[in-house]
Amino acid sequence: MRDTGRRSFIQGLAGVSAAGMLGAAWHVRAAQTQAWPARPIKLVVTFPPGGSSDIVARVLAPALAEKLGQSVVIDNKPGAGSSIGAQIVAHSANDGYTLLVSNSAALSIAPSLLQSPGYDPLRSFEHLAYIGAVPTVFAVHPSVPANSLSELVSWIKEQPAPVAFGSGGAASVGHLVGEQFAQTLKLSMEHVPYRGAGPMRADLLSGHIKLAIDALPQNIALHKQGRLKLLALTSPRRVAQAPAVPSVAELGLAQLVSENFVGISAPAGLPRALAERIASAVRQISARPEFAQTLEAQGFVTRDMESKAFTQLIADQHLAWGDIAKKTGAKL
Q1: Is 84 helix (H, G, I), strand (E, B) or coil?
Q2: Has residue 151 got a pLDDT over 90?
């Protein structure tokens, strides 16, 4: 009886001690959340400077810094189909100081092309705020004798060797759209992955490659200058920034419609109060007319979306792109 009583007493003390430790940890976490942000916030971009995610980060960072009263720094971590940057964020502390400029490549495509990406697109993150989408465009060098997508198809079929098409990198939306385009129309094409859209675009402008499937924003000015021809957008309809460029949907290729989203995500386990604060800040900034106008002028399509809907969008895209990756045999 005495031993039983002693064990019960010790177990009781252990329970009280554990509860006390948990309570203390909760109070420390709550205090840290209230004090946030006490140091600079890092925005991890999974592409090199000059890409769509980088453009959004550089427009968002100063506005977010002003709103939160703390510096916001951009950290470009490209590589492995955008999985390197995503993996860094997934394994960072969930304290609100490391955020991911999330996108379709990192969360919807790369996990389907890698055996061990090192993160799960849903379980490893809190998806906080959707910012907008970037239409992808079929762009060709002016020397290509094609002024429409159908003429491009005919030209590709006439070539004696596979036609190289460039993209901003393996596992990018441009990569998967190109593979699907080739498979759907039975075209002989070869993917050339670049380390970012900047180097790829330089080769396209010089004529080193003749075709690229790239994000629209960086190509609008080049199209207006006559340095590139834009033949079709992978959006469901035409966009105001390039009204003369048809969508693949109106050309009878609705299966090529794809949305390359950009948003803000954080490591899983971020305290709810902090998640709501960050999401609210980003959504409020996104709702500012000058913010939306800046991005839309560069080809982005912006819209408001709650965190739950944003998470569902990523889940749906992950399934869809995974299916396309299997059908096309795309690899990373």
Answers
A1: helix
A2: yes
